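[job 4417] fold queue: 2 targets
>>> target A
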Amino acid sequence: MGTLATVLAGKKIPTLGDRFRADVEGDIEDVDGVMRITKIRVKYTIKVPPGMAGEAREAIASYIEKCPGAMSVKGCIDIRDSAEITEIAEG
């Protein structure tokens, strides 16, 4: 979440309070007799100012390559992300 929040902040999209959430689940499987985390799914919920949904989609499309955690396990664990982006009025 930290890397995505940083990318969003660079695009002037606030992530405080209820504007930014991640729901995460994963699969643990027996791989050759060893229990391993094999899949991680992350669903982001992001509330953005009017007209900023495109910027948020760009952030989702690019942040993972900057994420130390994701890059550390890339190729070992299948990581999938998705986002529900909603434009909300400021105030």
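>>> target B
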Amino acid sequence: MRAVARNVSVVGGGIAGLTAAIYLARGGRTVTVFEKNRHLGGRAVTHLRHGFRFNLGPHAVYRFGPGSRVLRELGIPIRGGVPKRGGTVMFEGRQHELPVTPFSILRSSLLPFRGKLEAVRLLARLPTLNTRPFELMSVREWADRNIENRRLREFFMSLCRVVTYSPDERQCASVALDQLKRAMLGVVYVHEGWQKIVDSLHSTAVAAGVNFVTSSRVVGVETNGRVTALELGGLETVRSETVEAALPPLEANVEGNPARVLTDTVLLAVDPTTAASLLSNEKVSRCWRTLEPVTLACLDVALSRLPNPKQIFAISVDRPYYYSVHSAWAQLTPQGGALIHVAKYRAKPSKMTSRDYDGDSIRLDDEAKRDLAELEAFLDELQPGWRELVRHRRFLPSLAVTNAVTMPSAYRPQPQTPIRGLYLAGDWVGAEGVLADAALTSARAAARAILAEP
């Protein structure tokens, strides 16, 4: 086994897997990334449709979040537009100015006078608020204890919903508050979509010497007190001299059994359900299956022009809706075009999987039909006449946003597992950040733990 001691197999070619692979390769390890799809990137991919660049739903980089620090460490550029703080908030069928700055708070008709004064005090308090004392408290409990005005309290909850992508009021108060603080410092909508980040990570990984095997299905991780091998299914479909050169020591298929990649270090940069399915040790993986994912129903619309150019961003207080014209700040469309994301935050995942829906390509169940109708109606309120200007549209009935809602005192596994040689990375791993921030920081933590091993 000493011959493979410096080999690391990374399962999953999303941003977590790519990030960890770069750190590991720069640290002197021989790294091979196994990705089941033909293309890398996972949920960070961008699709080009009629000249419009569609991310998988609304994505943003938190400018001063921990994930941005990881990308800067790796030399990955983040080029895009920083949206201004402002927009529309809807409540009980009426539109109001979004009260997120001292002046907009005073101007907005959403809050009564006393609510405005309390909002200004809350806005001043948040940037320096120590959130550690609230780690065992839900965000609803924090709001009920700390915000007196009822309408301001519900508006605050809608902001937490936006920054965490979750409508679950049981989620950890300290996590939601930290995200809100980061959002106040600004986000970036990436020029040409998140594919630019994926491509930069990929090229940086290649330059560092990382090997890639795409269209490869990992079916298991062998352990015997520690990791001994990966099991690959269907490898014959991707065998070539290039693949052979990328693979660590390999034992070929015998009598229909999966091919075995000999390795003593594996990093699983996949979702928790997939990670658990690859491991026969139920004692270690049982808790991974209990994590609750967060999903959106998302309608992405490309228009030849924007009917109401002033309506760029909106949220709803009493309905779990989000609306944003990302192309107002990032280069995503042909000249004059507009790309809009309209989303419904889901309390529970839909039974449907997320697939492109352009009007008749798939059959929607009743729940998905209701979600689609709601999102179209919400878009009617904000951009009347949009239907006549559609160049392309895509509906994702149940888009996975993150693999774990962070609850008070909730279990979130660390990158280093009890099995020697087995590590984890992803938005459900580690104690730092949520969403892409968690994916990036857990990838760095996992890589550092591997490099620290003798």
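[job 4417] complete. Note on B: The first helix runs from residue 15 to 26.
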